[in-house]
Write a structure and sequence with these properties.
Structural class: mainly alpha
Number of strands: 0
Helix content: over 70%
Shape: globular
Number of helices: 19
Distance between the termini: 18 Å
Order of helices and strands: HHHHHHHHHHHHHHHHHHH
Radius of gyration: 23 Å
Length: 417
């Protein structure tokens, strides 16, 4: 059924693209771009936010409207943004309108990145859609990238997620300080390896079929500021909001604070139809504004370790808002996290878990940095490097297969988007 939604979205923007190109430079083209954006966002709002809107109307006006139960079509947030970027780029004259509907549908429905990104702009792959080529080296690189992403997801994200759930789902009153820190650190690892792992798999599959998707993650946890973090995290989403919302609103030139808050409100609500995501988005928007105006200059002068610790703390606080849909639970958890809840500091249970999994924890943390990749390339060169990749891929595939057979815990966090 949800394929129909994708087909409707594709039809809307295929014909809007032709219309906008035909009347380029006139008011009719402006009407076309407005129509495209409104229709696309109406589909997205109808499926993703209708229940949220009804709930808040009932809460504010004390009404009793029935909350609609609508299943979210997988990937609708991603392909909606992709098709909007297409019509806007046609309007701007950046790309010509695609004449073949089958070719345009290929762009919208491209399965490697359809369900969880990255957001691929038509302008980036227009030439590849028409004239792509593949060779054995490209396929080999694609397979290697896919296996790395699979390993991130199955061996790292799933394991971190099981640890996170173990502590984050408990009542804050029963947590010790170190358990709270361990739980949120595990969620911090889970969400990174889950989404970057899927992006790796999408990029790898794209290479196998002759498409070159842009990178979506660049070791965000090595950042020294929230601004740098968001240049490295979910790069395709940040680029979309920068080019299609922030700059058109005026960017840094006028109403900078309003423009930033608009972008970060949309960033938050894009991630989910709940107020905690809005608070999470605005939290980062305010941080980035403060860094632009004041904190950023201070962070640049501080030792790297200090500014890096600042970034990790603000990101962890942000992930707390992201995790808990109930704000009371979020603030109760933060009180435990920072020692304001009179909770015990440590627990025997956590000590046993950490000691039993210390090697996995160290490896997972190191894989959040480029250290292992850079060191591996220095040690293994030429034919030796290729041999190490093959052996590594085989080991990862065997381990992933074993884990998937034995484990039932296999969530994809970004399927909700």
């Amino acid at each position: 059924m949800w394929i129909v939604v994708l087909l409707i979205s594709s039809c809307i923007d295929y014909f809007h693209g032709l219309y906008i190109e035909r009347f380029h430079g006139t008011k009719l083209a402006k009407y076309g771009i407005v129509s495209s954006v409104v229709l696309n966002l109406s589909l997205l709002i109808g499926f993703k936010y209708s229940a949220f809107i009804y709930e808040n109307i009932n809460l504010i006006f004390n009404t009793s409207f029935q909350i609609p139960t609508v299943t979210l079509p997988i990937g609708i947030s991603f392909y909606t943004f992709q098709t909007i970027s297409y019509t806007v780029d046609v309007y701007r004259g950046k790309v010509p309108a695609q004449r073949k509907f089958s070719t345009f549908l290929l762009y919208v429905s491209m399965f490697p990145q359809l369900v969880a990104g990255p957001i691929v702009r038509y302008s980036d792959i227009a030439e590849q859609i028409e004239h792509r080529t593949t060779n054995i080296n490209q396929i080999s690189d694609g397979v290697n990238r896919f296996v790395i992403g699979l390993g991130k997801k199955v061996l790292l994200a799933n394991t971190a997620g099981s640890f996170a759930t173990m502590f984050m789902e408990r009542s804050s009153g029963s947590l010790t300080v170190t358990e709270a820190w361990f739980g949120i650190l595990m969620f911090t690892l889970q969400i990174y390896f889950d989404f970057s792992g899927y992006s790796d798999m999408a990029i790898g599959l794209g290479k196998i079929f002759g498409f070159g998707f842009k990178e979506n993650f660049n070791y965000p946890y090595v950042s020294r500021s929230a601004t740098e973090f968001w240049r490295r995290w979910h790069i395709s989403l940040g680029g979309f909001f920068r080019d299609y919302v922030y700059i058109p609103l005026g960017g840094n030139r006028k109403n900078e604070f309003f423009n930033l808050m608009t972008v970060w409100f949309l960033t938050g609500i894009w991630h989910g139809a709940s107020w905690n995501f809005v608070i999470w988005g605005l939290y980062f928007g305010i941080l980035i504004y403060l860094e632009k105006k004041m904190i950023g200059r201070i962070l640049e002068k501080l030792p790297r370790i200090v500014s890096h610790c600042y970034l990790l703390v603000v990101v962890i606080v942000g992930w707390t808002f992201f995790y808990f849909t109930n704000m009371n639970e979020a603030f109760s958890f933060l009180k435990v996290l920072f020692g304001f809840a009179n909770q015990s500091f440590a627990s025997t249970e956590l000590s046993i878990i950490v000691s039993n999994n210390i090697y996995w924890i160290v490896i997972a943390i190191l894989l959040c940095t480029p250290l292992i990749r850079v060191s591996g390339k220095k040690v293994c060169k030429g034919a030796m490097y290729k041999g190490c990749l093959i052996i590594g891929n085989v080991i990862i595939l065997i381990l992933c297969t074993a884990v998937l057979i034995n484990e039932s815990y296999n969530p994809f966090l970004y399927f909700r988007f």
